[in-house]
Amino acid sequence: MTNSIPELEESDCILVTGSNTTEAHPLVASRILRAKQKGATLIVIDPRRTQIARYADIFVRQKLGTDVAWINGLMHIILKEGWENKEFISKRTEGIEELKKELENYPPEKVEEITGISRADLRRIAEAYAKAKNASIIYAMGITQHITGTDNVISLANLAMLTGNIGKASSGVNPLRGQNNVQGACDMGGLPDVYPGYQSVTNETIAKKFEESWNAKLSRKPGLTIMEMFQSIEEGKVKAMYIMGENPMVSDPDLKHVEHTLKKLELLVVQDIFLTETAKLAHIVLPGVSFAEKEGTFTSTDRRVQRVRKAIEPLGEAKADHEIICKIAKRMGNDSFNYDSEEKIFEEMTRLTPIYHGITYERIEKDGIQWPCTNSEDPGTPFLHKDQFSKGKGTFFPIPYREPAEIVDEEFPFWLTTGRIGFQYHSRTMSGVSPSLQKEAKEGYVEMNPFDAIQLGIEEGEKVKVISRRGTIEIKTKLSFNVGRNMVFIPFHYFESAANVLTNTAVDPISKIPEFKVCAVRLEKIEEENP
């Protein structure tokens, strides 16, 4: 996030898109609702009428995969009406003329045709956002999990810069991470092309710094993304895989292909706290521990580094993740993985990571500190880009609209999107073993519009087949006007009726994230067998 979660309460306008905030990020949602109580305008743009949409001052549904078009449409209106922040644009940005040229292609009538959002609603949204003193954008994976995910995010950044809603409190472009400490994992180099602190693996000086500290020879070549790893297994280039705290047998697209690919490995090692669907395929399972059984730090979605303290000793044969890694490293002949405590690991992290340089256990004893924090006197950074962007001036990028990788047709006439519900968490590794949560939401469902159900002769609770070009699942129906006509929604949590059997493996060309949020399906009644 460019800004902080507490700042949301003082926003005058909050635009939420691609985020089922109250169910997936309830603490963030509470700040948003407090802002609304103080008079903020809440705008929700989502293909489904999610729970938070019930509180919105303006709620509109866009057609799946049309985010670039409606964002460009808002900017078109803002420029035509003269609502842009001319001073901010002049002093802090570049490339506005190129952007203006592209935006001429998105008049309200054309955007309405592409997105399904009416011209009147587009104008209302544009005016509310542009005229707010402090406007925040909140988004999640409903924006990123597309072949145009990078385009979507850049477009939102364009919108924020156009109105001067970045580089100040209670504004900004604020992605909500999908799981706890995803931000921390990325900060610490859990990406294929960077070391901790987003330092490029291709930079010779940076690489040498890590080589000296880690006593190891390091490649200057970026690694593989998840989808590239699976492709490399198919090609015989990758023969072993070590999976920690991830369950691709539920969370990755085209699950039949995932299973086929994992079974081709000569060695699959899974490190987790429960025997997940992926762990059941492993040659070796290493028992890790939960957050309550280990020390360390987590970094929240708003860049806040916080202490995690052990509540109980690890149960059974389980060990903290870092202990397992260090033991394996030593068995492989590297004696530099020798730490007296978790704090020693953190000290190494901060020494090698400029954005963490000023953070110590002592300083985060009670309250977390937000990076960048570059020295011991630095209080941290509640919001980014205060006086200038890291590169100097912020650049506007003209982004044209592109259709999703897969669109509906006569054979597959329904749009499918996937997402989360409040009572389950990701692939149910943890929530699936909670009796109380299982009682609330024990099985998956396909949510469909009642008028579509009538047309197909489908009743509430009836089990149907949902079929895509990649596979078929059987799942109960849930009739709801939360989804529009010719669209269905399936929560992805459930292995027994896995939405990701159906989803497309097409990826964003830059981020390599799969297009989980859009694919084409058809629904069929299940014929009863004669006795």
CATH topology type of the largest domain: Dimethylsulfoxide Reductase, domain 2
Tell me the overall shape.
Answer: globular
Number of domains: 4
Rg (CA only): 24 Å
Task: State the major sheet.
Answer: 6 strands, mixed, barrel
Q: How is the largest sheet built, in terms of strand order?
A: 16-20-17-19-18-21
Describe this structure as you would to a colleague.
With 531 residues, this protein is an alpha/beta fold. It folds into 4 domains: 6-176, Dimethylsulfoxide Reductase, domain 2 (3-Layer(aba) Sandwich), CATH 3.40.228.10; 178-220 and 290-311 and 319-376, Rossmann fold (3-Layer(aba) Sandwich); 224-287, no CATH class; 414-525, Barwin-like endoglucanases, CATH 2.40.40. It contains 18 helices and 21 strands. The strands form 6 sheets. A 6-stranded mixed beta barrel has the order 16-20-17-19-18-21. A hairpin with a 4-residue loop joins strand 12 and strand 13. Helix 3 runs antiparallel to helix 6 and helix 3 (67-81) runs parallel beside helix 9 (149-162). The radius of gyration is 24 Å and the shape is globular. The model has no long low-confidence stretch (mean pLDDT 95).
